[in-house]
Amino acid sequence: MKSSRVLIFFYLISSTAILFSQTLSLTQQQKSWLAKANRHEKNGWIYVHIEGAPEECGFQHGYLTANEIKESLNKLSAKWKYISAMEWTWFVKRAHD
């Protein structure tokens, strides 16, 4: 149970950063980070190449997999509501406390 909470918390943090970064235009620094990264799909698998400092890799990974993270959060929130009969917003508020 604890590992699933950690995973959920990771997805929350990642998705918040990703959604925030995609609503704004990219800075020159972010564009240079993305120039070193790429993503392609083959036989149903997603391949992501990232490189650089941890901050760069985190941004690259989040940016390149934003749609998958968003889809995971949607599924996770539906599962949460089904299992607990509680709204997802309750969990989000609690995770940030």
- Tally of separate helices: 5
SSE run = HHEEHHH
Residue stretches low in confidence (pLDDT < 50, at least 5 long) are: none
Strand content: 5-15%
The share of residues in helices is: over 70%
- The strand line-up of the biggest sheet is 1-2
Let me know the average pLDDT.
Answer: 82
Tell me the overall shape: extended
Rounded to the nearest angstrom, the distance between the terminal CA atoms is: 19 Å
Number of strands: 2
Rg from Cα: 15 Å
Major beta sheet summary: 2 strands, antiparallel
Structural class: mainly alpha
Explain the overall architecture.
It is a single chain. The protein is mainly alpha-helical and 97 residues long. It has helices at 2-23, 28-35, 54-64, 66-84, 88-96, and strands at residues 38-42, 45-49. Helix content is 71%, strand content 10%. It has a two-stranded antiparallel sheet with strand order 1-2. Helix 1 (2-23) packs across helix 4.
Provide the descriptors you would attach to this structure in a database record.
single chain, 97 residues, mainly alpha, two-stranded antiparallel sheet, 2 strands
